Amino acid sequence: MDIQLHYTEQGSGFPLILLHGNGEDSTYFEHQIPYFSKQYRVIAIDTRGHGKSPRGTAPFTLIQFAEDLKHFLDEHSITKAHILGFSDGGNIALEFILRYPQYVEKLVVDGANLFPKGVKWRYQAPVVIGYHIANCFAKKSEKALRNAEMLNLMVSMPHIVPKDLERITIPTLVMAGDRDMIRDAHTRLIHGHIKGSQLCILKGSHFCAHECPEAFNTVVENFLNS
């Protein structure tokens, strides 16, 4: 059954959809929403089970989140939009465009990965350990179950075949930080399989959009306006 996703909307004009990362909500984009709302109809969505969006009963997977996005766009009569996805939001954006390319005008993926091994092990190891601990208590604790579900998004997802990215034909910007938790070679793998895509490695960690918003916003703005 479809759920009503919570969202923040600001500005008018062509739609720009913002998709946050794992365990976060739309407030991650506090430096992007007011900036881009001067030119776009900015819609920052809370993913299913994140922020103020309900969990619902559907599978808690990135593919389901992509289906949720399609339902949201249809519900709001949005037939075309720019999509900017960060981390798991970038993964959702990739899952979405591979299924529904007709909805996307331009795509920005920041700190995305195609499969779990794209994440540097020193960042992935604590997630894997945390997942197994939470999973042990999931049958006895609702909190542990929710935590296990959230961590599982990173432990076992996504499963995107690099060659499938060659089907993406719209203008795409691939971004990451030079100290990102995503392996540099993996970010370049994504860029290399999306024909004609642009690559931008910013100074900063996985959370460039929050840490250095001026640089991040300028790069994205130039791409969207080009």
Chain-wise SSE layout:
Blueprint: E1 7-10, E2 15-19, H1 33-36, E3 41-45, H2 62-75, E4 81-86, H3 88-99, E5 104-110, H4 121-137, H5 142-155, E6 172-177, H6 184-193, E7 198-202, H7 208-211, H8 213-225
Parallel strand pairs: 2-3, 2-4, 4-5, 5-6, 6-7
Antiparallel strand pairs: 1-3
Helix pairs in contact: 2-3, 4-5
How would you describe this protein?
The chain is of the alpha/beta class and about 230 residues long. It folds into 2 domains: about 5-115 and about 160-225, Rossmann fold, CATH 3.40.50.1820; about 115-155, no CATH class. The protein contains 8 helices and 7 strands. The protein has helices spanning about 35, 60-75, 90-100, 120-135, 140-155, 185-195, 210, 215-225, and strands spanning about 5-10, 15-20, 40-45, 80-85, 105-110, 170-175, 200. A 7-stranded mixed β-sheet has the order 1-3-2-4-5-6-7, sandwiched between helices. Strand 2 (about 15-20), helix 1 (about 35) and strand 3 (about 40-45) form a beta-alpha-beta unit. The protein starts with 6 loop residues before the first strand and ends with a helix.
Give me some keywords for this one.
Rossmann fold; alpha/beta; globular; 7-stranded mixed sheet; 226 residues
CATH superfamily of the largest domain: Alpha/Beta hydrolase fold, catalytic domain
- What is the typical, i.e. mean, pLDDT? 97
Counting DSSP E segments of at least 2 residues, the number of strands comes to 7
CATH architecture label name of the largest domain: 3-Layer(aba) Sandwich
End-to-end separation: 39 Å
Q: Compute the gyration radius: what is it?
A: 17 Å
The CATH topology name of the largest domain reads: Rossmann fold
What is the domain tally? 2
The share of residues in extended strands comes to 15-25%
Largest sheet: 7 strands, mixed
List the secondary-structure elements in sequence, H or E: EEHEHEHEHHEHEHH
What is the CATH C level class of the largest domain, in words? Alpha Beta
Widest sheet, order of strands: 1-3-2-4-5-6-7
Helix vs. strand class: alpha/beta
Which range best describes the helical content: under 10%, 10-25%, 25-40%, 40-55%, 55-70% or over 70%?
25-40%
Uncertain runs with pLDDT below 50, 5 residues or more? none
**What is the overall silhouette?**
globular
Report the total helices: 8
